[in-house]
Amino acid sequence: MTTTITVNGEPRDIDADPGTPLLYALRNDLGLLGARFGCGVGVCGACMVHVDGTPVPSCDTPLWSLRGKSVVTVEGLSPHPVQEAFLDGQAAQCGYCVTGIVMTAAALLERDAEPSREAVMSALDRHLCRCGAQQRMVEAVLQAGRRDSDSDSDSDSDSDSDRSSGTGTEA
Ligand code: FES
Ligand code: FES
Q1: What is the pLDDT of residues 18-45, one digit of tens each?
Q2: Cα(161) to centroid(ligand 2), Å
Q3: Domains of the chain with CATH codes
Q4: What is the CA 64 to chain-centroid distance, rounded?
């Protein structure tokens, strides 16, 4: 049976049982390998994707539940300030858990552009990292939030200076 779901902005037909976990369809049918299999039961976070902007474990999300919803994988997110901050801070070791963590962090920054350390730790709490790189990951997410805010204030001050120098868009 074919289920049509929207993945990274495009409708995709998946010929599989509607109860198939999204993770299997992403990796086996659509060739999107960013979401990873860890526990298979929704507890480690390695397979995290966004469904209508909310991070969900794709291993625990059947295809039938996604009709009319929008799925975004790490491939659809790139490039993102969180990924840049992870690279700059070398915030990973083996990297297996990172794509899931990036998805959760990106969703957090959508809700809260400059989160507190506690908010970042709370958001990432559900993710397992067997390499013990969590501290560097928390720092990277904080850095990404600051970077986003800096670029927002830069563009604000650019428009302020545009206005004050008369180079704005006013007629
Ligand atoms: S593989 Fe999905 S939460 Fe662990
Ligand atoms: S970096 Fe290896 S599991 Fe997290």
Answers
A1: 999 999 999 999 999 999 999 999 999 9
A2: 44
A3: 1-76 (3.10.20.30), 79-159 (1.10.150.120)
A4: 22
